[in-house]
């Protein structure tokens, strides 16, 4: 599998990683899927302390035991479980980050994290304090590099300006082209990589995804999604699937270092990874695909 440098770091990530949130809560099944991914050339595993209340980190930790050197391990921080309350609170404070990383390390069964990411962020956060926490952890060798997971252009701009992030995790697909408006050009100019999540748009762009379109997707309605799927299928032709084509679209922008599609079965995993064997899109092919969707813009109502 082709490997790309993540921003200015020395991390070389396979262009197709694994979003581990979808591997489930059964440890045996989750470890099996992660091992199959590693055996097929995947080296970027992405998780978060939020997923399944930490259980996902534990499963990833079990899977990489004895294989740590094969893995670029990414996790996230910032969402805090509040005792006695439903849901999660948001806490990007230095104190919390320095505390939360210890729990992630314990669950992951490792003494360092390759890429530690702020799991969200608002313009009203104490950003300098947040950055101080990441910089301290980097100096101490607890993390190798840090980044942010965000779709908010105004927040991303501030971290680009103030910090040493090497990556931005951003939802990016043929149906979600918000990053093309200003995020991708900015990051390309600054040498910061994108890790693209949601390349098949929650399954809407997958070959068997027609059953997922009834509720729409972002600002697309059901009829529009049917039309996009019809045109995508025709474009893909006989040599590649719709899902593989969608993954290649997300990878076709030069600042995207990796995509992290999820997989809950071996079949899904194999299909996603097989996109690495499909020829990259040409500039003309990318432009043709853009004509079947639209350049939607960032709107806070679309998370």
From TrEMBL:
Annotated ranges, domain NADP-dependent oxidoreductase: 15-293
Transmembrane segments: none
Gene3D superfamilies attached to this UniProt entry: NADP-dependent oxidoreductase domain
Domain of life: Bacteria
Coiled coil: none
Alphabetized CDD domains for the sequence: AKR_AKR11C1 (cd19086)
PANTHER family for the chain: D-THREO-ALDOSE 1-DEHYDROGENASE, NADP-DEPENDENT OXIDOREDUCTASE DOMAIN-CONTAINING PROTEIN
Protein name, UniProt field: Aryl-alcohol dehydrogenase-like predicted oxidoreductase
């Amino acid at each position: 599998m082709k490997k790309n440098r993540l921003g200015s770091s020395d991390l070389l990530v396979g262009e197709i990683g694994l979003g581990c949130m979808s591997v489930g809560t059964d440890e045996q099944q989750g470890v099996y899927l992660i091992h199959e991914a590693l055996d097929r050339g995947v080296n970027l595993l992405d998780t978060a302390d939020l997923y399944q209340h930490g259980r996902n980190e534990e499963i990833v930790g079990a899977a990489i035991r004895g294989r740590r050197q094969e893995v670029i391990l990414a996790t996230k921080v910032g969402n805090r479980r509040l005792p006695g309350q439903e849901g999660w609170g948001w806490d990007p404070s230095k104190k919390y980050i320095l505390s939360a990383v210890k729990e992630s390390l314990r669950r992951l069964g490792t003494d360092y994290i390759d890429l530690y990411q702020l799991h969200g962020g608002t313009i009203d956060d104490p950003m300098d304090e947040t950055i101080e926490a990441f910089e301290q952890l980097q100096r101490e060798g607890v993390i190798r590099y840090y980044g942010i997971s965000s779709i908010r252009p105004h927040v991303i701009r501030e971290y680009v300006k103030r910090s040493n992030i090497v990556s931005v995790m951003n939802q990016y697909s043929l149906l979600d082209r918000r990053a093309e408006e200003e995020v991708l050009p900015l990051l390309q100019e600054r040498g910061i990589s994108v890790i693209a999540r949601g390349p098949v748009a929650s399954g809407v762009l997958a070959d068997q995804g027609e059953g997922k379109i009834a509720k729409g997707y972002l600002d697309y309605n059901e009829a529009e999604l049917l039309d996009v799927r019809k045109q995508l299928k025709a474009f893909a032709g006989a040599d590649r699937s719709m899902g593989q084509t969608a993954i290649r679209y997300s990878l076709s922008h030069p600042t995207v270092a990796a995509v992290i599609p999820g997989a809950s079965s071996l079949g899904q995993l194999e299909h996603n990874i097989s996109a690495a064997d499909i020829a990259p899109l040409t500039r003309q092919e990318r432009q043709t695909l853009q004509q079947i969707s639209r350049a939607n813009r960032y709107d806070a109502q679309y998370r």
